[in-house]
Structure formats: C-alpha cells, structure tokens
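Blackboard transcription, Thursday session:
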Amino acid sequence: MTTLLVAENDNGSLSGQTARALSAAQALSAEIHVLVAGRNVAAVAEQAARLAGVAKVLVADAPALIDGLAEPLADLIVSLADGYTSIVAPATTSGKNLMPRVAALLDVMQISDVMEVLDQKTFRRPIYAGNAIATVESGDPIRVITVRTASFPAAGEGGAAPIEPVTFEGASTLSAFVSAETQDADRPDLSAARVVVSGGRAFGSKEKFDELLVPLAAKLVAAIGASRAAVDAGFAANDLQVGQTGRIVAPELYIACGISGAIQHLAGIKDAKVIVAINTDPEAPIFDIADYGLVGDIFELLPELEETL
Amino acid sequence: MRRIVVCIKRVVDANVKVRVKPDGSGVDLANVKMAMNPFCEIALEEALRLREAGKAEEVVAVTVGPDEARDTLRTALAMGADRALRVDAPTDTEPLAVARILKAVVLEEDANLVFLGKQAVDDDNNQTGQMLAALLGWGQATFASKIEIGDSEATVTREVDSGLEVVRLPLPAVITADLRLNEPRYITLPSIMKAKRKPMEEKDAESYGVETEPRLKLLRVDPPAERTAGVKVGSIGELVQALKSAGAI
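(Written on the board underneath:)
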C-alpha cells in the first residue's frame, strides 16, 4: 500500500495545497512518496522532503516538464504508476487538468474532489455544486484521486525524506506553453485564500465595487469575489464569480457584502468556516446561513470596517 | 477545418436546487427541469461562432445518454449545430466510459477539433475532456476562456488558479470551455422549427464495443451539513469583536 502524491509547484516553490493533499494521502496509506516534477526543482524537492510523513521524494527534472503541461506530466506519472495503490493530487486547476488524463491512460475512473477518505477505496465527494454529498467506492486497482484541499488541514513539517531522481525523456509535442498572466500577484487566489470579501449588485458600479472592496481586501489579505449579479452588471470580472457556475470557495472567513444570497451563490460558499453577511435587507436569504449578520448600508459600514481592523 | 465535434450532456437545470432522496439512494430527479449543461452550451456556442467565421465547415453535436437526451440534442440543433448523434447509454454513465465512446465517435467523424464543457453541473467530475484527449493521444486545453484557431493549430487562453495561461496546440486537439469563453445565444422560434428537419442519428454504446459498467459504486447520497443562521450583530465594533473571539481574524 503506497501512495504517490503529485506535488504542485512552479519550479521555485512548493504550493501549500500539497501539504493539505498530503493529509488526505495519509488516510490512504502509511507509505507516501511525493513526486516533484519540473525544471531545476531541487529547492522544491527539499521542501517536499521536510513535510511530515513523507517516505520518499521522487524528482523528475526535465525540460519537457518545466511548464507543468498535462500531456508530458501524465506520461511521467503513468511510467511511475506500477506499485502504487493510489495516485493523489490537489484539486487545483493543475490537478484537475492533469489527473483525468492519468486515470484514462491507466484505464481507471478518477475520484474527483475528495472531501473525506472513509477507507482506502471509499470516499465522500460533493456533487451538484455541494448540494449533495456522494459516498463512492472504487473498484479499480489504482485509485486516482483529486483532493478538495479546503477539507483537509495542512500536514506539518519536521520530516527528512530521502530524495531520489527519476528519469523522464518524454517530449511535449502535443501542446506548448506560450505565456501566463498572473492577476494581482499580491492578492491571494480566490480558491486558496484564507479570507474572501465578496460584493453583490448593491455596489451599483464598478468604481464603488473597487473603491470599497479593494482596501478592505488589502487589510484582511483577502481575495475578492463577486456574486453573479455583480458580474453580470459588469462590476467585477467573470473569474471573480463565486457560486455554482463560478468558483466554489471554502475560506476560513467569507464576508458577503450587499449580496442577497441566491441559491446558486450559496452553493459556492457553504463550505466556508465563518460567513459574515452585511446587507440592507433584513429578509435577505444570505442571513439564513450567515454566522454573523449585520443589517445596514455597505457604503457606510465597509469603510468603517476597514478602519476598525 | 472540416469538422468540430461538440460533446453535450443533459443535466438538471443549473437553477434548480436538487433534493436528496430520504433513503439516501440519490437525488430526486422526478419532475425536475432538465437542460443542456451550461458549460456544454458555451462549448457549442464557440463551435458555432467558428463555423460562422468560416473557420469550420460543420458542427456535429454528440451526446451519450438516454432517450430523453434527444431534447438536449434538439436544443443543440436549434442553436445551430448541423447534425446530431445520440449514443444510447444510461444517464449515470461514468466519464471514462463516455470518453471511450466519444473517442470512437470522434475518429469515425474524422473531427479536427473537439469541444466539451469543462464539467457537468450534476456529478461535477471535470474529467471527460481530459480523458478523451488522453485516449486519443491528442493535446488538451482545459478551462478555455479564449480560443484562436489557425491553419494547423489552436491558441487557447486558459483560466487557471493564478490567473490566465496561454497554450498552443497542434490540431487535432480537445478543448474544454470555461464560463468566460462566450455568452451562448438565445434560441429563436424559427430556429426551433428548422431544427426539426435536421438529421439526428442514434446508436448504442455496444456498437462501439464500449462497456458502460460503472467502476465507482455509489454507496449513498446525503444532504450536505446544513448551515443555520447565526447571530445578528448591531455594529461594526460588535462584528469585529465577535470575529476576533471566534479566531476568524
């Protein structure tokens, strides 16, 4: 029983999502190997080796792996798969891009977005945007799994696993990286943020949306989200949309400002640890699920909140 | 380019709040409104725009699903697909089996490009496109928010956690649509009438030699842990105090 955990990295450092996926891997098997793939990834391998509970770190350092493209990476993982009972990655956009490709090449069904490991082959995962939770049992010889990282704590440090190189001579002929545009590098990503402040239609304009939420987000080191109504009204970019058809978030703290709480929005935030709602309408459905509700005008209350913090 | 195959799934309408059956055997789908998966709709819209821009000659809509999925294909034809194919299979056919069927269809259709939605809003698996690309041995671009088609390659902007990423793929390739790619058109009455005369072919999964037996056993379905209303606070000061004592800030 050995698990291969695919580390998420940008060639320079290990993503924090990996330590969370490691906690899920620990529920699957006692022995865990971490695969660090990329180019000049020695520093990442050392970070992975320090994670508590890792038995071995495999390092694949090859030009074809530098951009994290799914095609060569899947070929690498398939070449290593023999002997593993589970192959695990965080359910980030890279994990979601990569793992079904691995599963299909191994002829197994992937188990997506695992939020709880019941035993080595039984898992709980959200369906219908979290409106239902399915318990599924895998009948495949290898379990290919993506982990909903918000559901697992980060594994600690203190390990000193041996680091072992693996060779990869594959090429990346099926796709090529062109460029990347990282948005607001100093603001945390919506899916991974500890705190999310989100705005709705009540802001009335893009100017007000930015004027009120940007300083508050900066103060809280928070990501900014938006309701579908705010996105449709042009106050915020589509990639900020939180909800069933947008991003599903699970931060420690979610502050919904001027959001009434349509079903499709609530489906995207119900895994948040603490929800705060600020809205003028005391009857707004958002208050039915908020841990702390404050009835009032966002235009007065948000600057006050920012000052108080 | 000759042909784009667009893969489509019939799902519970995204605006419906599903209910879990009391016996935990699944979600209650009786009398629930069904619709084309929103991401599939976006994928189809993109294919239609490419055809209208003269970049593709034909758009073929394909679904793997039960008899009722005919309605979804009719919608696809009304949106503008040239013809449609339904491969008969149970509603809950898993992504791996769907991908194996689609592989056979794509090769049979000699498609240059395959579009799918990034995920279906029922099982939320987000697997079929990637699996199809793997089985075909083609390149993949998932979560597309912009697609440019050249003579022999596609340049695709992808929505990733850190922002946007641009990749280039030689054709043929598989591309999955994200929310920002486009806004699907509304269907007009004349197009619905016209769709009735468009060809819809039907086959069964066995004719492709694909076994649809599930690999994952669904043991049970539960409602999520309910959130209940907490407390109302009277002021920002009170709110900040409460959040501090809860350890949230």
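Lecturer's comment: Chain B has six helices and 13 strands.
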